[in-house]
Design brief:
The protein has eleven helices and ten strands. It is α/β, with parallel strands linked by helices and about 270 residues long.
Length: about 270
């Protein structure tokens, strides 16, 4: 993480093949501040380039908030926003998807998610939530446009739910239970089981071929951006690309020899 100064606002650690990102501003609802932009970007860059990292878990500190979005008080005091007036590809770099990280990401939602905090949920590959968690969007309440995160919501929720969250603002809260029923949440657990569940999923993912996992993720996310036939053609190209990788031969060989495969780290 040479491109950013260390910060107490975000904890980043690696254990085995799993990287952990923890938003660490519990006294401010784990809100995202302008100072965290470069830290988060450098974190994703490190995850992307470290071949030992096979899966990522992102969560918030404490038991109340995953992230309450942009720190509006800090923005009001400094005049600095979470993004400048440039292309989205340069300015919006909070999530794995926005940083072109093709390693699996699990969001372990430990509490309230609001506004910009939704970036980290809608762009996660798997969402595990504590049963007391709540999701809401507050952009319009503070005179902002609900756009990037909200488009992500519309990909993972029925359109009416995404619009209700966006247009009704803070007066509408989507419970974790309802979010699970609608598909925004993939696993619903008591708070005490949140991290063990997320870690269990990450450990199982980390056992698989990192190269095959990465290309599989690209194929599925890519299907959201194109028509069915073109998405399948893209998936077929990724599949054939993997044929030249050592893992393609190692997997069947290890299965036949009844041993654990020795994957090549990306």
């Amino acid at each position: 993480m040479d491109n950013a100064k260390p910060s107490d606002d975000l904890r980043y650690e690696k254990r085995g093949h799993i990287a952990y990102i923890t938003l660490n501003r519990p006294e401010r609802g784990n809100a995202l501040s302008p100072d965290m932009r470069s830290i988060m970007r450098a974190t994703w860059d490190d995850i992307k380039t470290d071949p030992s990292v096979r899966c990522v878990i992102i969560t918030g500190a404490g038991e109340r908030h995953f992230s309450t979005g942009a720190d509006v008080s800090r923005i009001a005091a400094t005049g600095r926003t979470l993004a400048s007036d440039g292309p989205m590809s340069q300015e919006v770099r909070w999530s794995s998807h926005q940083n072109h990280v093709w390693k699996p990401v699990i969001a372990a939602v430990n509490g309230l998610v609001a506004g910009a905090g939704l970036h980290l949920v809608v762009d996660a590959d798997i969402v595990v939530a504590a049963d007391h968690a709540v999701f809401m969007d507050t952009h319009v309440n503070v005179g902002l446009v609900g756009a990037i995160e909200n488009i992500g919501l519309a990909k993972r929720l029925p359109l009416g739910q995404a619009l209700r969250m966006t247009l009704q603002g803070k007066s509408y809260r989507l419970s974790a239970k309802r979010a699970y029923e609608l598909g925004l949440v993939d696993e619903l657990v008591p708070l005490a089981e949140l991290m063990p569940t997320a870690e269990g999923i990450a450990q199982e993912i980390a056992k698989n071929s990192p190269h095959a996992v990465s290309l599989s993720k690209q194929a599925i996310w890519g299907s959201l951006e194109t028509g069915y036939r073109n998405a399948q053609e893209y998936g077929w190209a990724l599949l054939r690309m993997h044929w030249a990788h050592p893992d393609f031969k190692e997997g069947p060989r290890a299965f036949a020899e009844k041993r654990s495969p020795q994957w090549v780290d990306q």
